[in-house]
User: What shape does this take?
Amino acid sequence: MTNVTKSRPLSPHLQIYKFVPTMAMSIIHRITGAALYVGTVLVAAWLVAAASGPDYFSWVNWFFGSILGQLILVGYTWALIHHLLGGLRHILWDVGLGYEKHFANRLAIANLVASVVVTLLIWAAVLLFV
Assistant: This one.
């Protein structure tokens, strides 16, 4: 009996595809979208704490003021900005712009760089003015 599966083509997978910036940004866009769900639950918890009274609110503020809380807030800010910029990149594609391979790759890299820079600017402003 012959083995018919040996002659079948392989399904595409990450070892076959060349890893390109647009692929990385697509993956990161999905991850940041999922992270925004978790972050939004934390924002809702903060709002519930504000409505629940000073004891619960001070505990939640203490958590968000801790190093772990600050890292979570910075990560949430970055996810929000990165997802927003990725959405704007997708709007460009929806109107038929930016399909050229080199431009799309440069735009993907710019999305990552801009999201980090804007996040740093936001947190610099927060730390300077609050």
User: Anything to note?
Assistant: The chain has four helices and no strands. The chain has one domain: 20-129. Residues 20-129 form a domain with the 3 helical TM bundles of succinate and fumarate reductases fold (CATH 1.20.1300.10). The chain has a mean pLDDT of 91.
